[in-house]
Specification:
2 helices
């Protein structure tokens, strides 16, 4: 065999190999590469979308946290206001109750003073009768002179 015939046969075989590779091997490899390229592009787009969603979620979380802090501050302020209202109401109720107790005590004192005066009048009239009976030298009948005693108690 001749070098030219070998070279020609190798060239024909190489051309057949290239044609076979282009027809049956190259097309699936290019398709696989294109599919992989598409998957990578989709993954990058998804990653960008996820990053954007994460930023939005972080902003929303910060806003929700701020709203929660404001709401808790409002609730605390309302609680403090309600507590001061309850304290003021209790103070007013205590003042009212104290005034009522003082008024009752004054009324009771007035009654006791009145009873003491009545008792004192009765004792004074008894002493006056005893003194008058000694002065007159005879005993005065309390039943007979009841009107006189009532007048004397009323004057005292």
């Amino acid at each position: 065999m001749n070098i030219n015939a070998t070279l020609l046969a190798q060239t024909i075989m190489f051309a057949l190999f290239v044609w076979f590779c282009m027809k049956f091997v190259w097309t699936p490899i290019i398709a696989a590469l294109e599919e992989r390229k598409k998957q990578i592009a989709d993954g990058l787009a998804d990653a960008e979308r996820a990053k954007h969603d994460l930023e939005l979620a972080a902003k929303r979380a910060a806003e929700i946290l701020r709203e929660a802090k404001e709401k808790s501050a409002d609730i605390l302020a309302g609680g403090e206001k309600r507590a001061s209202e309850i304290i003021e109401a209790a103070k007013d109720q205590a003042r009212t109750e104290g005034d009522r107790i003082i008024t009752g005590a004054k009324a009771e004192i007035d009654q006791e003073v009145f009873r003491a005066k009545e008792q004192l009048r009765t004792q004074v009239s008894a002493i006056a009768l005893a003194g008058a009976s000694k002065i007159l030298g005879r005993e005065i009948d309390a039943k007979a002179h009841n009107d006189l005693l009532d007048k004397l108690v009323a004057e005292i």
